[in-house]
Amino acid sequence: MAAEEAVSQPSTMAVDSHDTAICIIPPKHLWPMYDSLRSLYDKAYEKWPPHLNLVYPFVRVENLPRAASLVASQIQDASLHAIQVRLNAVDVFPRKNDNTIFVYDDDEERASRVQQLRNAVLRALGHTSSTNYRMHMTIGQSQHLNSAPHKFLLDKSALLPEAEWTIDRLYILTRERMQIDGNAFSQMKIWGTSKSCH
Q1: Per-residue b/e over 63-84, b at no fewer than 16 CB within 10 Å?
Q2: Residue 47 — pLDDT band, cuts 50, 70, 90?
Q3: Does the pLDDT at position 194 exceed 50?
Q4: Rounded to whole angstroms, how far apart are CA atoms 58 and 172?
Q5: Domain residue spans in the chain?
Q6: Which end of the chain is more exposed for a tag (fewer CB within 10 A), N or C?
């Protein structure tokens, strides 16, 4: 009996690749609203679409098909559907070299549902949930908390209209590397989706 239980447990899949991510992406009609600021202030604007990371780094590229299948099954089993997100507040992650300004959902119940979704993804890959996750969408970076440019971007971000949508799928992204005018460049592209959230 114990041996059968061990077999049925998912094997742990390493989540150590910065070349992949699983995230929530808002509907495309909302992108221009965020990109109007991201294009000016977010150093990752050209590399990432507007997004809320669930797990990054994620699994190695060669493990994506299996990971996607495990995640879809886990989400379906956990009955995670009709999860709403409303980006209606702004805050800052102070860091050593710069500060990350982001928008987020300040409703505890909705935020908890997104946390449950993240936990389900981690469980599918054989990991326990972590408590240091905070749902956020990066708008940009600033250098000094007390500087005028920081306060300007914070105020601008606070003026963004509230955006609400239902999460109907998770997006798996992979890093595509390329050369542009002899310079190395990378961009996170959609590899696939998990549609078991609805």
Answers
A1: bbeebbebbbebbeeeebeebe
A2: very high
A3: yes
A4: 9
A5: 16-194
A6: N
